[in-house]
């Protein structure tokens, strides 16, 4: 039975951005509200533009009941073309993946998004011609390979009014001064220098225009192998030890070239082994961390847990949750990356040793580890502007291939790997373990992950600074030629009003002037555990373990590579040294502005609930979760702020005071635990079914044998 809200004659016009063109549309499309398991929904118009797929109903035209956390660019029923993951058609109740040319058109369209939303559109009541146009249009514009210049990024940049607003506090690292300032901030300018050797990209198109190397490295050395084999500076520790990265030589080379490269590397290592440089330790990340393919495979499995088509599917998988979660291997990958970052931090902090991260391109695994190390060791990277500057330094100008790794152009699926999402997930683990240490919130990280798929910002849509620079000029839609004015994602006012932006800042951030050292270790473990793997995970640890790596295998791998015999690998250190460092730190009070080490034992690595579960109503707790605490704190802040304003008025100082916006949480007692993404109007769902009525489950005898059976299900029985 279909509960139909009859279509009205009211015409709803789409809101188009500058440069956005309507490509195709279909009327009388029925959008299901799949959350409550019924066939209820609403009629409207489905459109496809060169920017997004959008469903328009009469509610779209009214501004009533607008969400508090509204994105000004992407509406609740909008999907950017880059955000489309998979498109399925339903033929006679059978679901089929849609790609390329279609011979037969489906009666129902299901769109899975990269931000994990799932849309269901019924096309039974739509004219046949319109169905053909809209389905083939959506599949073509979101799934087929396209040219870089065809991205909406360029249409928007040429049509939008020039936005030359004031530069925000984020350091973009596109000038020599930015690098020199960073050297000075970290006291690295004694041993390292910013170079201009790559001006005009004469060294390499993958390297940024400006970068930092040890003072003793000559320009001739940098030019010799297009920047390969050169230690490039990332960051300096307070004790003078530095984090460096190096692009390694390709493995397959003829003997002559191989000998030349080996001699070159030996010379470089000898040079930087002398004073004023400390002992150099290297980390070959390609052999000690999962490959890009492993990461992509794990994430592909992991995201399937959250792309839920209906309530029945959710309950069918719920009882096997931990088994399914463990089999994806995603949380184990997060654990391994955090562990590697702790190992690097130990070398820098305790052993006063420089660490050189080695990878073939130095733009993938290097980006993740170097960023994590800086977030753990440098409190500046835990501020909003500091974290944004870090992303600019290590990822954007650092040459991470966002275009290929996010597969924005749909050119090569084999190049795709969610490395930036992996970093955000790792940082989220730290944020949820030590909230007062971060100026930003998990909502900030979630919104940042969504911004990967919004092609009006240039930040995540190029493979390198060179690619961006060479595509900056072109004919605009108004036939005037000149450089494109691309927006940066760090200007949050483009997406959010001030009230919404306030939700990106942490009201409990421990200001540096008043570091709270009274917090004891016990406060660290007050975390929910239902979204992490149970402690039985450790059953498999004798093989791999959290801290006991297969050292012999690792050394064999390292020695098999031609990196030079002068390298000392940090994995050669006794592992009890790492464990001692880890345990020692965790036994002391936390300094929120000092070194932060994540807890990586057992169930401390959790599922990022806000990002992955926000569109699944069954997982939401009305009036529960961390937002319940946050709401009370924000109420207090608002009260304090209003009292402050009254005091200022009495002293005639109201004008000179800059009052920061505090988000107002309407009906905070009824807010979802996944606020601000799950809103009040989405709460009208049927209660969770008792376990006795679950469908498609094995009989009770089989369940008893499962590892998952010790999950406490009593909450559902009530």
From TrEMBL:
CDD domains documented for this protein: PTP-MTMR12
Location(s) in or outside the cell: Cytoplasm, Myofibril, Sarcomere; Sarcoplasmic reticulum
Residue ranges of domain Myotubularin phosphatase in the record: 173-612
GO biological process terms, semicolon-separated: phosphatidylinositol dephosphorylation
GO terms for cellular component: membrane; sarcomere; sarcoplasmic reticulum
Chief localization: cytoplasm
Pfam families: 3-PAP (PF12578), Myotub-related (PF06602)
Keywords of this entry: Cytoplasm, Sarcoplasmic reticulum
Homology family: Belongs to the protein-tyrosine phosphatase family. Non-receptor class myotubularin subfamily.
Official protein name in the record: Myotubularin-related protein 12
Organism from which the protein derives: Nothoprocta ornata
The organism's taxonomic lineage, starting at the top: Eukaryota, Metazoa, Chordata, Craniata, Vertebrata
């Amino acid at each position: 039975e279909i509960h139909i809200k009859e279509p009205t004659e009211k015409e709803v016009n789409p809101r188009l951005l500058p440069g956005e063109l309507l490509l195709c549309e279909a009327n009388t499309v029925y959008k299901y509200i799949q959350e409550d398991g019924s066939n209820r929904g609403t009629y409207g118009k489905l459109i496809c533009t060169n920017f997004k797929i959008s469903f328009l109903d009469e509610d779209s035209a009214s501004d009533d009941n607008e969400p508090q956390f509204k994105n000004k660019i992407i509406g609740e029923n909008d999907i950017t073309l880059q955000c489309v993951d998979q498109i399925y058609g339903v033929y006679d109740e059978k679901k089929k993946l849609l790609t390329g040319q279609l011979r037969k058109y489906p009666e129902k369209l299901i769109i899975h998004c990269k931000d994990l939303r799932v849309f269901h559109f019924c096309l039974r009541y739509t004219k046949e011609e319109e169905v053909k146009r809209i389905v083939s249009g959506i599949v073509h514009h979101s799934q087929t390979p396209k040219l870089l210049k065809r991205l909406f990024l360029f249409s928007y940049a040429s049509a939008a009014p020039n936005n030359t607003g004031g530069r925000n506090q984020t350091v973009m690292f596109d000038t020599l001064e930015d690098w020199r300032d960073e050297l000075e901030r970290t006291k690295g300018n004694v041993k390292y220098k910013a170079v201009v050797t790559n001006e005009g990209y004469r060294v390499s198109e993958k390297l940024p225009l400006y970068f930092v190397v040890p003072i003793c490295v000559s320009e001739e050395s940098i030019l010799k192998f297009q920047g390969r084999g050169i230690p490039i500076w990332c960051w300096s520790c307070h004790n003078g030890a530095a984090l460096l990265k190096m692009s390694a030589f390709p493995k397959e080379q003829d003997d002559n070239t191989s000998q030349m490269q080996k001699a070159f590397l030996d010379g470089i290592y000898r040079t930087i082994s002398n004073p004023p440089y400390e002992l150099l330790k290297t980390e070959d990340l390609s052999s000690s961390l999962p490959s890009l393919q492993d990461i992509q495979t794990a994430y592909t499995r992991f995201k399937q847990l959250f792309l839920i088509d209906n309530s029945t599917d959710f309950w069918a998988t719920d009882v096997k949750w931990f088994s399914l979660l463990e089999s994806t291997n995603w949380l184990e990958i997060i654990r391994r990356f955090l562990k590697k970052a702790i190992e690097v931090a130990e070398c820098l902090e305790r052993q006063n040793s420089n660490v050189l991260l080695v990878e073939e391109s130095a733009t993938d695994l290097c980006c993740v580890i170097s960023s994590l190390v800086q977030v753990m060791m440098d409190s500046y990277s835990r501020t909003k502007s500091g974290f944004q500057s870090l992303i600019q330094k290590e990822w954007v100008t650092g040459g991470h291939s966002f275009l290929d790794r996010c597969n924005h152009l749909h050119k090569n699926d084999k190049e795709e790997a969610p490395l930036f999402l992996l970093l955000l997930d790792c940082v989220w683990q730290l944020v949820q373990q030590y909230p007062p240490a971060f100026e930003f919130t998990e909502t900030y990280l979630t919104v940042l992950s969504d911004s990967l798929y919004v092609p009006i910002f240039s930040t995540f849509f190029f493979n390198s600074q060179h690619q961006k620079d060479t595509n900056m000029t072109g004919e605009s839609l108004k036939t005037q030629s000149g450089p494109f004015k691309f927006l940066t994602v760090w200007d949050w006012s483009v997406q959010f009003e001030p009230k919404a932006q306030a939700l990106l800042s942490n009201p409990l951030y421990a200001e540096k002037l008043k570091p709270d050292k009274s917090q004891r270790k016990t406060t660290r473990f007050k975390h929910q555990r239902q979204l992490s793997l149970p402690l039985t995970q450790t059953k498999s640890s004798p093989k791999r373990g959290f801290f006991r790596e297969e050292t012999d295998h690792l050394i064999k791998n390292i020695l098999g590579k031609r990196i030079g015999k002068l390298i000392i690998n940090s994995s050669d250190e006794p592992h009890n040294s790492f464990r001692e460092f880890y345990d020692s730190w965790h036994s002391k009070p936390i300094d929120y502005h000092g070194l932060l080490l994540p807890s990586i034992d057992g169930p401390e690595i959790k599922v990022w609930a806000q990002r992955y579960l926000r569109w699944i109503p069954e997982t939401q707790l009305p009036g529960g979760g961390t937002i319940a605490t946050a709401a009370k704190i924000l109420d207090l802040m608002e009260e304090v702020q209003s009292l402050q304003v009254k005091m200022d008025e009495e002293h005639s100082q109201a004008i000179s005071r800059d009052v920061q916006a505090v988000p107002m949480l309407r009906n905070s007692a009824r807010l979802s635990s996944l606020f601000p993404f799950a809103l009040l109007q989405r709460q009208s769902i049927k209660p969770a079914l008792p376990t006795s009525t679950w469908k498609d489950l094995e009989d009770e005898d089989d369940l008893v044998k499962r590892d998952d059976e010790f999950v406490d299900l009593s909450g559902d029985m009530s």
